[in-house]
């Protein structure tokens, strides 16, 4: 696999504690959640790296979806570690997209726009503007009401120049307290640009979400 320009990491190593079983293997129509997610990226990227458990790997190896574009990385104890493992398996692409395996409703058009913008801006986050009034709270008491015009809810994919995000992960590899890659980039001093996505791109957390 030479001349890889675009890679995607699809994180699939979580324990699905709140769901009650492995949510990635639940069905949406005729495909599992993880198959549905992967299918959105297959035609748009040159390789897909899946940090995952042995159970997910075994399942995908038998899936009709499996092809030479797909390879696996070890699932880490945290999302941050899983992504780091995925980055170290990547074939030195120009850009890399990092997406939650449990976000199967991402639109291909959003992925395309994110790819185009990342080639231009180097760091891009897909998100949606907040529609609810947002309160900052401490010890059960509202401190202030935030201006929702300035509030975005982060989604994935989060997309980066590969060498840049690799350098950032190396910098923070011993500080595993980041919940997403955008916050790592922000801490590093990188400008992360927003691409407004769709509210349908939700992450499956509970059975209600399905």
Largest sheet: 7 strands, mixed
N-to-C terminal Cα separation, in Å? Answer: 36 Å
- Return the average pLDDT rounded to an integer: 92
The run of helices and strands is: EEEHEHEHEHEEEEHHE
| Helical/strand content category | alpha/beta
Low-confidence stretches: none
Helix content: 25-40%
**Outline, from the CA principal axes?**
globular
Strand order of the main beta sheet, please? 5-4-1-6-10-7-11
Strand content: 25-35%
Instruction: Enumerate how many helices there are, as a single number.
Output: 6
Oligomer: single chain
Beta strand count: 11
Backbone CA Rg = 17 Å
Please tell me about this protein's structure.
The protein has 210 residues and is an alpha/beta fold. The chain has helices at 33-41, 54-61, 79-87, 108-121, 162-172, 181-188; strands at residues 6-11, 27-28, 31-32, 47-52, 70-74, 95-100, 123-129, 134-138, 141-146, 152-161, 193-196. α5 packs across α6 (181-188). The termini are far apart.
Topology overview:
Layout (H helix, E strand, L loop, with lengths): L5 E6 L15 E2 L2 E2 H9 L5 E6 L1 H8 L8 E5 L4 H9 L7 E6 L7 H14 L1 E7 L4 E5 L2 E6 L5 E10 H11 L8 H8 L4 E4 L14
Parallel strand pairs: 1-4, 1-6, 4-5, 7-11
Antiparallel strand pairs: 2-3, 6-10, 7-10, 8-9
């Amino acid at each position: 696999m030479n001349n890889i320009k675009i890679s995607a990491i699809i994180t699939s190593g979580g324990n699905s504690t709140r769901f009650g079983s492995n949510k990635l293997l639940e069905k949406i129509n005729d495909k599992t959640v993880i198959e549905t997610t992967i299918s959105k990226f297959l035609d748009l990227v040159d390789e897909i790296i899946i940090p995952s458990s042995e159970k997910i790997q075994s399942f995908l190896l038998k899936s009709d979806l499996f092809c030479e574009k797909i390879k696996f990385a070890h699932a880490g104890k945290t999302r941050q570690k899983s992504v780091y493992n995925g980055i170290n398996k990547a074939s030195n692409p120009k850009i890399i997209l990092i997406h939650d395996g449990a976000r199967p409703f991402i639109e291909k058009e959003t992925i395309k726009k994110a790819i185009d913008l990342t080639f231009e801006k180097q760091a891009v986050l897909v998100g949606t503007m907040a529609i609810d009034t947002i309160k900052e709270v401490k010890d059960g008491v509202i401190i202030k009401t935030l201006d929702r015009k300035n509030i975005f809810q982060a989604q994935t994919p989060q997309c980066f120049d590969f060498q840049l995000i690799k350098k950032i992960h190396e910098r923070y590899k011993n500080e595993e307290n980041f919940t997403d890659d955008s916050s790592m980039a922000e801490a590093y001093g990188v400008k992360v640009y927003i691409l407004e996505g769709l509210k349908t791109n939700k992450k499956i957390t509970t059975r209600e979400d399905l």
